[in-house]
Amino acid sequence: MKTMVVSNTTLTVRNFRAGLMQFLQNKGYDVVFSAQDNGYAQEISKKGFQYFPFDLDRKGTNFITDLKLIYSLYKLYINEKPDIILHYTIKPNVYGSIAAKLAGIPCINTITGLGYVFSKKNPVYYLVKLLYKISGIFASRTFFQNKDDMNLFLKLGLIAENKAILVNGSGVNTDFFNPDFCRRMSKKEGEFIFLFTGRILWDKGIGELIEAAKLTKQKYQSAQFWLVGIIDSGNPSGIGEARIRDWEKEGVITYKGEAKDIRPFICQADCLVLPSYREGIPRSLLEALAMEKPIIATNAVGCREVIENEINGFSVPVKDAQALFKAFSKMIELPPEARLKMGKAGCEKIRKEFDEHIINTVYLRQIQQVIG
Fold first, then answer.
1. What pLDDT shows up at residue 128?
2. Given phi > 0 = left and psi -120 to 50 = alpha, else beta, which region is 58?
């Protein structure tokens, strides 16, 4: 059976879909992938997955451009004849499912988070809502990564209940993200490092993080704030490099750039931070907890599935820099053994609920049902 994975960029394929692709390949499936290449196609292809490129305007709303995307995906599906297509991210979900319907090929969509599109009711919101309804009709199944997103789609009538599947995110490889990796590394004494990993976006709560970091550094000389991730200029919520460099010059943060392997940074950190406004299920929190690190996160959609206040970290309200500052202070003042206890509790939760193998098995079962 031939399975095609379609996402917006090759970075999202590498970071979030490679585990499922490898899992399906090990089960005997011929797995190929398609995405706009932002530098990772060759790396993924070397693992035995054939790549098919396409062009995608991620933030554009040009009707003609989007029609061209549907046509290019339709041609790809007709030429390659996969038995099933797995769509991820908004435009592949919406336009890919239309192309798949035209090509007569079943597809499964995954809503990885609603992001900025559903944050305000403007004309784009109503257009996207209509497009999601169309894609929900055409897709054989739609996976959701948290209850809030799934319940919202059901409430708005965007998806039939018998097509909606709930999973705990994309899962995390607990063999790769393992605390034993950190035991081989030494940590610099005298610093308390808060780590943010992910795309550097305003709606990830970076503005609140900066404000809280300034207050924290005034109170604690040992406090350090590291940002690791891509500067995503293609995202409407993206933050420019000049702004990030200004924060560095002020001594507020240290920008570490993009990392192919995030584990050494997690090992160096004392706590991982994600003050996001809305998520699917944030992989950064899963990875940190899997490596026995405590977390600080907002009680936003997606984050609240992971954070357990006072157990594996501290939960704070969305867009509240003062609350974030208090959580930073509280984490610094905790005894090391209390932080370790939080990390261990988080690791146990990840292994029970968010292990990649659990999620991949659900996908396999649904694929088998759809294609018989």
1. 85
2. alpha
**Per-residue pLDDT, 61:** 62
Domain residue limits at 280: 179-354
pLDDT score recorded for residue 59: 58
Which of 229, 169, 193 has the alpha carbon at shortest distance from 349? Answer: 169
Q: Between vectors from CA 330 to CA 327 and to CA 332, what angle results, nearest 5°?
A: 110
Both 137 and 246 in a single domain? Answer: no
Tell me what percent of the residues of the chain surpass a pLDDT of 70.
Answer: 97
* Residue for token pair 């920008």: 255
- Cα three-residue angle 358-362-368, rounded to 5 degrees: 140
Asked if pLDDT for residue 62 goes beyond 80, the answer is no
Asked whether residue 46 falls in the same domain as residue 68, the answer is yes
pTM of the model: 0.88
The span from the CA of 147 to the CA of 90, in Å, is 18
pLDDT digits over 145-194, tens only? 999 999 999 999 999 999 999 999 999 999 999 999 998 887 778 899 99
Q: Are residues 15 and 159 in the same domain?
A: yes
User: What is the rounded CA–CA span in Å between residue 72 and residue 64?
Assistant: 12
Spatial neighbors of 248 by CB under 8 A, at least 6 apart, are 254, 255
Distance separating alpha carbons of residues 98 and 224, to the nearest angstrom: 47
AA identity, residue 291:
M
